[in-house]
Design goal:
alpha/beta, 8-stranded mixed β-sheet, 5-stranded parallel β-sheet, globular
């Protein structure tokens, strides 16, 4: 089964779609069955550059889907719902970039459809595949108790992101991680800054049912790119830089010299093996297509994870818009 050739189609070849295409080409026993985009000029150039088949219009999509083991959707968020419905009529293995859809209602429809039709949906929460996150997860397994996790994610506003606010663009990644580490929320507080009708700066505090807190800050108005996680545990403090892939652990040491006691902090750096997060993510999807079962990888982010993140994101948006009135 491991040598079986998997045919995967790609919908959307913008900046992120190009990244997917580049990494798909690196996977063994994976053929790109087609690429498609509404930008015909870009479509023709990309198909030529990568030497892959292209679909010239929507009419050819149905036949192409019938000959694909799985499809990756990297189109604008507002199109996700329609494309998932169209794709799911012909293949059960679907990768869709985060967020799953653009509204809570349509997300619930997809969750219900996945259950009823036995769809295998993988949601593109790429930070789960960041090697620094993998190291952080292992550290937290050995911690007595997590008190709080602070997430900071900033980017200067990108001209390519026009259909979603900062909550759905950036914060959604850390919402997913906060739920992954701390579980179901008990309560949520949020504040933010709205520019031209869009939330461009957001800060949320989530009190989780496990007693821990998550503080999440996301900004598209900050003149610095930051991807930082800081964790306060009962027995250690962890700094995790997702850009430089650095994880620093600080622990107290107790030294006693006769009647004098010295308490100091010991810092150690965790060695992170260099890995391409998107490549690992797509490898999981290829294996999903090969096995035709998401139960083979229970840690794979699925439609329910997409819905849970969407519930929190939707609440944060409501709180910020309500406070702005």
């Amino acid at each position: 089964m491991e040598n079986k050739i998997i045919k995967i189609g790609l919908l959307g070849i913008g900046k992120m779609g190009q990244n997917h295409l580049r990494n798909l080409n690196m996977l063994k026993n994976v053929d790109i069955s087609f690429i498609y985009d509404v930008n015909t000029e870009l479509l023709v150039k990309t198909a030529t550059d990568f030497g892959v088949p292209m679909l010239k219009n929507d009419d050819a999509l149905e036949d192409a889907l019938k000959n694909s083991d799985g499809v990756i959707i990297v189109t604008p968020t507002f199109t996700h719902f329609d494309y998932i419905k169209k794709v799911s009529a012909h293949t059960k293995n679907i990768f869709v970039e985060k967020p799953l859809t653009d509204t809570l209602d349509t997300t619930q429809i997809i969750v219900d459809a996945a259950r009823e039709n036995n769809l295998n949906i993988q949601v593109g929460f790429i930070e789960r595949y960041n090697p620094a996150i993998s190291a952080l997860k292992e550290l937290l397994k050995n911690s007595d108790r997590i008190f709080s996790i602070d997430f900071t994610r900033t980017n200067k506003m990108s001209s390519r992101i026009t259909d979603v606010d900062v909550v759905m663009d950036l914060m959604i990644h850390d919402i997913d991680l906060s739920l992954l580490f701390n579980g179901e929320p008990q309560s949520i507080q949020a504040h933010g800054i709205i520019i031209n009708g869009m939330i461009e700066y957001a800060r949320a505090i989530i009190a989780h049912k496990n007693g821990a807190f998550s503080t999440i800050t996301a900004s598209r108005v900050t003149e610095k790119r930051i991807r930082q996680i800081s964790v306060t545990c009962e027995d250690m403090y962890i700094d995790c830089n997702l850009l430089s892939k650095e994880v620093l652990v600080n622990k107290q040491t107790l030294e006693q010299h006769l009647h004098n006691i010295s308490i100091s902090s010991r810092s150690e750096s965790i060695e992170i093996r260099a890995q391409e997060a998107l490549l690992l993510e797509l490898l999981d999807f290829a294996n999903l297509c090969r096995s035709n079962s998401k139960h083979k990888n229970s840690s794979l982010p699925n439609e329910n994870d997409g819905k849970n993140a969407m519930l929190v994101a939707n609440k944060i948006q409501q709180l910020i818009h309500a406070s702005a009135k």
